[in-house]
Amino acid sequence: MSWIQQHANSQQSRLAATAVLSGAAVAGAILGYQAIRREKAVHKLKASIPDINDSHYAEKLTEYGSAAAPQLSKEDERSAALARRAQEGDYDDDLILEQLARNRVFLTDEGLAKLRSSFIIVVGCGGVGSHAAASLARSGVSKIRLIDFDQVTLSSLNRHALATLADVGTPKVHCIRKRLEQIAPWVNFDCRNELFGGSAADDLLGPWQGQKPTYVLDCIDNITSKVELLHYCHTNSIAVISAMGAGCKSDPTRVVVGDISLSTDDPLSRSTRRRLKALKVNTGIPVVFSTEKPGPGKASLLPLAEEEFKKGDVGELSVLPDFRTRILPVLGTMPAVFGYTIANHVICDISGYPNDYNAGGKGRDKMYDGILAAMQGLHEKLARTEAGQDFVGLRLPISKDDVGFLVDDIWRGKSIVSGLHNRLQLILWEKPARGFGPDSSWEKEGQKFIPIALKDLVCLTKEEAIRHEREVLREGKRPEDIYDEKTVQKVKERMKEAEFYENYR
């Protein structure tokens, strides 16, 4: 106690206490001044916001932070009013048939009637989806559901079919509806300003006005949503067609329609196929894709800037979880080509007009057959050399579909050594410890079967395969002895991919 009194009475202690109190007073004054300034700034900002009235319209933002349905101009209001009457039947059917006259003589009355009675869902209303929706409405489809959570941005205008500067900041679904009602007022639109996901599929892809969807158009560029949509449609037997990547493409003559198992030369196609394969969906979904290959001077996916990685989780840069963070280079014309190709397929399919194209498969089936035949011949030759006898009926556990999967999905349609795309072969990466002859356990059952796994095979050109056969399979050299470390490491990585997806064969 005496120590406390002694220091309390000292001049040094009194000075220290005074300094502390003074500092606290100054800090309080500064904080108080800042609080007053902040309050005045907030008050001024609030005062600058006009009252909500006829001149200043406002709506709540959606859960995705975008604007809700935009306020209509006087002209748009008149168009919307006409559309409401037309959709209720107050519109001369002869006028509709006159507007659809060219489609009518092309598709016939019966075909046009099927198209007019259809209900189509467009999921994704950006560059591809907007052009597809516009073509469907102009061609006579009377019921269209539009699904997209996003809003029009300035960068959308280089490829969106219907958006104008006045639409920037408004939902894409309402932008499309507003414009198309001015073109085809009798078309009924069901706008869903929502993000498609598997949990919402029953509602978003469900019936409308008692009618189940005739067709679903997948125009999504997010891989997770795309796979969920395609898997749902495939599982529930809903007709669907999907657009693969239009980014980095520039050759409209290379855009084709084919089964998803045939789509190549596109990272979005590859990722979609792999994920669907894991869900046991390998075929049966038509897709629009480009066979154009990348090359010197062509656009490519831009790498994310290093400074963005240093800031932390790059996923935080995306609009929503699992959405891409890179900006894809897109030539404005190519999404339109994809969109019109999708719409063309759907219009012909619904109306019964013959679609006899199979451009997506031309040449590739023949290539797969050739690779499979070469692989069969090589193993028969190796087994005969090793055992000194012919093996009649020797079989490989590899199908043409397996060849297509390995060549296109695992080895990206090119040699792992040189990167060349021509004269490809599949060959064992290492000489098997058990030899090249048939499995003895299967021979007891009367089957001459060589146990080869997909992960054992590597893609080379024909010339590279000849050398590999001589040095690795016949002379017994290790691949590490003849290939550089980078190639060997790449092979190991791809083999792990093949091993994973082999579980879903």
TrEMBL record:
What CDD domains does the record tag this protein with? YgdL_like (cd00755)
> How is this protein situated with respect to the membrane?
Multi-pass membrane protein
Q: Provide the THIF-type NAD/FAD binding fold domain boundaries.
A: 102-360
Q: Which keywords belong to this entry?
A: ATP-binding, Ligase, Membrane, Mitochondrion, Mitochondrion outer membrane, Nucleotide-binding, Transmembrane, Transmembrane helix
Q: Where in the cell is it found?
A: Mitochondrion outer membrane
Any transmembrane segments, and where?
A: 15-36
> Chief subcellular site?
mitochondrion
In its UniProt record, a GO molecular function of this protein is: ubiquitin-like modifier activating enzyme activity
Annotated signal peptide: none
User: What GO terms in the biological process aspect are recorded for it?
Assistant: cyclic threonylcarbamoyladenosine biosynthetic process
Q: InterPro entries, alphabetically?
A: ThiF/MoeB/HesA, ThiF_NAD_FAD-bd, Ubiquitin-activating_enz
Output the Gene Ontology cellular-component terms.
mitochondrial outer membrane
UniProt xrefs under PANTHER family: TRNA THREONYLCARBAMOYLADENOSINE DEHYDRATASE, TRNA THREONYLCARBAMOYLADENOSINE DEHYDRATASE 1-RELATED
**Family of this protein:** Belongs to the HesA/MoeB/ThiF family.
Q: What does this protein do?
A: Catalyzes the ATP-dependent dehydration of threonylcarbamoyladenosine at position 37 (t(6)A37) to form cyclic t(6)A37 (ct(6)A37) in tRNAs that read codons beginning with adenine.
- Protein name in UniProt: THIF-type NAD/FAD binding fold domain-containing protein
Annotated source species: Aspergillus ruber (strain CBS 135680)
